[in-house]
Structure formats: C-alpha cells, structure tokens
Amino acid sequence: MRQAGRKWTTADLPEACNTNNLFRKSFIPTYIKWVSQGYNPWTVDDLAAVTAMQKIWNAVYRNTIRYTISTNSPVFAIVSRIYILQELCN
To answer: Does the pTM of the predicted model rise above 0.90?
Structure first.
C-alpha cells in the first residue's frame, strides 16, 4: 500500500504485469493511441479513461492478471502521469 504523499511507481503495479515488459510495450502505447484518437486529448474524462484502460488491460493480459482499474489505482495514476509528460515533451 502506498504511503500518503508518495507517488505510485511501477513497483506498486500488480505482480507479473511487467512480464515481457507488456505494461510498457503494449498497455501504455495502446492507451496513448486511444487517447490520441479522441476529439480533445487534453480533456479525457476520468470515467472514459478508466473504461478504456480496463478494456485495454483485459485485452493485453487476457485475464491472466485479474485487476480492476479505478481512478485511485496505481495503473491509472502511472499511465495518466506518463501520458501528460509525453504530451508536454512533444
């Protein structure tokens, strides 16, 4: 569990989700592609983001790692932070 004031890190992700580097090589790029195809990538609704992330998670991990994404989960926080940083750098 994360301590108050500490950011989520990949160490907080579900065990084994980094097997074959799937989180970085498949999950994150797929989510970024989904966001980039929207009307305005700067204003992605949290509910829409969670729904998309969950569908992507289920497709990438094919139920080998059961996990529910929420706005309070490390997956949501890490992917959202990576997306924002990538957009600011481009």
So the answer is: no
